Amino acid sequence: MAKLDFKLNGKPVTLDIDPSLRLLDVLRNQFQLTGPKEGCGEGECGACSVLLDGHTVNSCCLPIANIHGREIVTIEGYAKTERFKVLEEAMAHEGGSQCGICTPGMMIAAESLLNKNPQPTDADIRIGLSGNLCRCTGYNMIIKAVQRAAKKGAGSW
Question: What global pTM score does this model have?
Fold first, then answer.
């Protein structure tokens, strides 16, 4: 067991926990944060994506020990922001969310991208979302949604 301190969705957390547990399992089982999904369990699909110190990571591959002293934001935390609302509206308008399995991870990846690059090109968006798989949309609607959010949120990213 190890004592870990970190921020989760803006709140300080202290856990005494097995340091080898996956971040995904801790988020889902200890905190009931079910936005990050178990997709592939290998870090290939992005369904489990969260922000770690502002960067997209696959929580299914990250031992909880690696988050000591860091900040985690899940889709639940991100959903409380104005920036989320801009992206959510764009996803709805462009039909970028269908079955919903990939949506939380896509939203997290889009936030990370737009935070680093508020006016991305199509190529930038494709690269920024490349770690997230979607079986429903064919990606074009998601890319259009990120473009729309970038235009609408200009200056706020």
Answer: 0.93
